[in-house]
Amino acid sequence: MQDPELRKNQLLRELPSVDKLLLALPDSVAEYGAQAVTQAARRALQQARDSILHDEPLETTPAALKQRITCHLTAETLPSLKPVFNLTGTVLHTNLGRAVMPLSAVEAIVTVATQYSNLEFDLASGKRGDRETHVEQLICEFTGAEAATVVNNNAAAVLLVLNTLAMNKEVPVSRGELVEIGGSFRIPEVMQRANCTLVEVGSTNRTHLKDYREAINEQTALLMKVHTSNYRVEGFTKEVTEAELSQLSSEFGIPFVMDLGSGSLVDFVKLGLPAEPTAAWTLERGADLITFSGDKLLGGPQSGLIAGRKDLIDRIKKNPLKRALRLDKMTLAGMAEVLKLYRDPASLTQKLPTLRYLTRSQADIRDQARRILPVLSQTLGDKYHVTVVDTTSQVGSGSLPTETLPSTSLSISPVSGGDEALKPLVVQLRELDRPMIGRIHRGALLFDLRCLDDEDVLVSQLQLLAL
Ligand SMILES: *Cc1c(COP(=O)(O)O)cnc(C)c1O
Fold this sequence. Notes:
By secondary structure, this protein is an alpha/beta fold. The chain has helices spanning 4-14, 18-23, 26-32, 34-53, 62-77, 103-114, 136-143, 154-166, 187-193, 209-215, 242-252, 279-284, 310-318, 320-325, 329-341, 345-351, 353-359, 362-380, 418-430, 455-464; strands spanning 85-86, 90-92, 121-122, 127-128, 147-151, 170-174, 180-181, 185-186, 197-201, 223-226, 256-261, 289-293, 304-308, 384-396, 405-414, 436-437, 439-441, 444-448. The protein is built from 20 helices and 18 strands.
């Protein structure tokens, strides 16, 4: 038996040089360039040395090294941001990219991204134009607002409204509405950064009109109401309505601002969905300004919309912060196309993916689950039970927190071993070309099919999978 130290040294000495590997990979050099192949070769050699020194079983022959180099090179050229199957049952999932865009909007984005455009150029006069003319009228059309403006997201919209209208002044907000959204957006912190003073009124569960009235003084800039979009206070509760706050704010000659969060543009009840205040409804109830997200219920690109009184919108547009928060041409192009879909409410639930997912019937989802069941059972073999179960989906992104939509899932449970036995499978399904992301509930992995469009892609991926 050879001395292990001598054997290690021999293996290390036998490793080829970077130059030699490069010469042996002419095709890769042609495709990726010598520099990238050199880097990949150095990485592969380092891995090989480490494995030899730590007695790890890794093949270090030139053929194995070459294979690892090409693997590194292909992995590096694949996009890190890629499609996944959202089988979580949450339609607007912030971690999975929120709203899925309609193809018509994506085509408009490609057009403006790959060519020059009249982004800020008025073709009628030949003079400088305003980039927001491409969406402002559309927003007004579907909200009933006099004027509108757009920024990067709703957090930016709230920040900009407060900074413009309430800098160095006070803003009373109900204690029941001091919400945190997604861990990084908290109303009190945004207020602080906007340089205004939050005046908490009422209590967590009950706030009365007189609480607001008592909080108003000459330092008060505006009244603000926040849609408690991701939780609900239930039981002995009282909140002041939009109409009451509008009346009170006019009495004192200050604006009333409502942060809607999701801000739907269509009546959800008419679509057979749980009620959600629409943008138009809120403005009709007397809000002077509303703010809402573009990529929640609206179903468009990430953005924040501000709509309402023209004199207030004009002031907001002049705030220097506006320039830092402005939308890019691609988002504007996508938003315009998404908004145009609202002109035909009858086809909206087919053309806009978010509304199509939300309105999908349980019967339709169940049929799909039954079609996929045999393929999934066959792939997973006899270590797992696969069944079709009725479950509930959620709207997500803080919309309609307590309402659920009847749905159907494929449920995978290990024949023995409980949650622990499920974990390797969850990891394996996440490592697929198109990762399958579900949720674990009571010892079973659930795949809610509400948002599954590419059934054939999922099925062929499963058929190729060897477990
Ligand atoms: C989601 C939400 C926000 C933040 O919106 P983003 O578009 O994610 O920045 C702010 N306020 C409320 C009430 C929300 O629901």
